[in-house]
């Protein structure tokens, strides 16, 4: 396991991370040029950033609006879940179960308030009801669920804001 306190990143690493967040499909040549690095240096640094786990994975972000005529808009819900018992074992068990459902796009443990916030995407309301039955009503430890259904997504941006390297990271 990598000790995160021993990771050393600099401005060039941050430029690469920012560029990759914007468009990970760029060639190494184009990435190097935009980051003001040589292609071999760019390639070596990106490989290192992957090995350190700073780049978790690279994915294609699909256009829900363009897919809608082909697949339907679907239903997005933000779901608050409160458990009856919040011991580590119960929290871990619930989390392990919900992250396996492909409809669950995001899962957060939160505090204060509910124990979990989920972002769920289903094809339609019957599909959501089936998912709710499987994940929530069949679990005796789920005390309360509250679902908020999206009418419109005003913003979606998976990028993390990057600043300067933290002083501890430069030591």
Description:
38% of the residues lie in helices and 18% in strands. The chain is of the alpha+beta class and 171 residues long. It has two domains: 9-60, Arc Repressor Mutant, subunit A (Orthogonal Bundle), CATH 1.10.10.10; 65-149, Lrp/AsnC effector binding domain/regulation of amino acid metabolism (RAM) domain (Alpha-Beta Plaits, 2-Layer Sandwich), CATH 3.30.70.920. The protein has a four-stranded antiparallel sheet with strand order 2-3-1-4, covered by helices on one side. The radius of gyration is 20 Å and the shape is globular. The model has no long low-confidence stretch (mean pLDDT 91).
Keyphrases for this structure?
171 residues, alpha+beta, Arc Repressor Mutant, subunit A, Alpha-Beta Plaits, 4 strands, 38% helix, globular
